[in-house]
Amino acid sequence: MFVSSPPELAAANRMTARAALASARDGRGDRIATLRSDGPLVLRPSHPKGPEPLSHRSPDVARVSLAAGTAGPLGGDDYALSVRVGAGSTLVLQDVAMMLVLPGATGARSRMAVDIRIEDGATFVWWAEPIIAGRGCRHLHEIRIEIAPTARMVIREETILGRHGEVCGDFASRLRITRGGRPLYDQRLCVGPSADGATGAAILGDAGAAGSIVVVDPAWEDGAPPADPFAATASRTPLAGPGVAIGAVALDSLALRRHLMRGLASLGAPWAP
């Protein structure tokens, strides 16, 4: 049960963060054009030891790591990240660690909003680490992507339903992708005590983890790889456009990652790690 608090207490326990990231391409190759961190959202340039496996193995891509500057988000926190992948550039965004979503002192809902724009001929790779929905949390996680018809991308999402031995809190996520202004993908997941039917056999059952990988590639304009239910709780599904969604549920994070990587490997080069 959540207890209401005075407005001044709620404001004192609320953290707002806004961060921005952009890449561009010039005569020297891909570069980071904008890098602005804010409190708990820490963006840092990073340098791979070799060619990036999910970006046609190009050695000169722009690469950034996202780390948490503080614990959370906690209840009441409001985070936002803006990402722009400039025309012709390649941007690889990689999380440093998992995100643990926890309740706050006031019982308010936390929110993380990510807005991504991928311009003509660009490539975006977001290799996100899992989000753990801790006991008692109330969290909304929204990702909105606008991708140009000539651009390509791969994004991974993984949700862990509570820490070991605990019941997860209320967690809702939504991933929306439009391509050339037209809807391509819109997926929602709601889990926790307030999510009716989430633990039913048609949704999660006894699974402790759920996730997906979405790949968009203009090379599939004439047809994406066909549907393939490659495991009892995992499948590859073509989208109504040059894209594929790989979805899975599993007992734990390790089994979930195995399912997702198996689905990605089934796509072949250049997407197979």
The number of helical elements comes to 2
Largest sheet: 11 strands, mixed
**Overall outline:** globular
> Rg from C-alpha positions?
19 Å
Mean pLDDT: 88
Strand coverage percent: over 45%
N-to-C series of helices and strands: HEEEEEEEEEEEEEEEEEEH
Could you list the spans in which at least 5 consecutive residues all have pLDDT below 50? 1-10
- Record field, number of beta strands: 18
Count of folded domains: 1
Percent of residues in helices: under 10%
First-last Cα distance = 45 Å
Structural class: mainly beta
Architecture overview:
- The chain is mainly β and 273 residues long.
- The protein has one domain.
- It has two helices and 18 strands.
- The protein has helices spanning 7-12, 253-265; strands at 16-26, 29-36, 41-45, 62-68, 78-85, 90-95, 99-101, 110-118, 123-127, 131-133, 138-147, 152-160, 170-179, 182-191, 209-216, 228-231, 234-238, 243-250.
- The strands form two sheets. Strands 3, 4, 6, 7, 9, 10, 12, 15, 16, 17 and 18 form an eleven-stranded mixed β-sheet that branches. Strands 2-1-5-8-11-13-14 form a seven-stranded mixed β-sheet, with no helix packed on it.
- The longest helix is centred in the C-terminal third of the chain and has 13 residues, at 253-265.
- The chain is globular, with a radius of gyration of 19 Å.
- The termini are far apart.
- Residues 1-10 have low confidence and may be disordered.
